[in-house]
Design a protein that fits this description.
This protein has six helices and two strands; from the N terminus they run H-H-H-H-E-E-H-H. It is mainly alpha-helical.
Length: about 110
């Protein structure tokens, strides 16, 4: 079983979170996961190359935004909503809400 590094919520830094969300694909992934559901890279990626999707998911995970759970050969990604809300109250709601208002949708994760 593969183990992933997940930063402790106290070690999550605002500049890294903002950098991770500054890319349209990564922002689209966050919007797609904002409902609290777990999704595989394939469900999120659409026609994005597997290596590109892996890169984007790694940046989001290392920034502290994603939690990855392995089950067999699949990896399920979810936003660390509760931890991020504790660390940065209201930040993710504001950023993702603004992203949706500006037209970003989960389809942007497939570009």
């Amino acid at each position: 079983m593969r183990r992933y590094f997940h930063p402790d919520p106290a070690d999550v830094c605002l500049p890294e979170v903002l950098f991770a969300l500054s890319d349209a694909t990564r922002l689209g992934i966050a919007v797609a996961l904002a409902d609290g559901a777990e999704r595989t890279a394939g469900e999120l990626g659409g026609d994005i190359a597997k290596s590109t999707m892996t890169h984007h998911l790694k940046i989001l995970r290392e920034a502290g935004l994603l939690y990855v759970r392995s089950e067999g050969t699949r990896c399920y990604n979810s936003l660390r909503l509760a931890e991020l809300e504790t660390r940065f109250p209201g930040l993710l709601d504001q950023l993702l809400g603004f992203a949706v208002k500006c037209g970003y949708t989960s389809a942007d994760a497939r570009r």
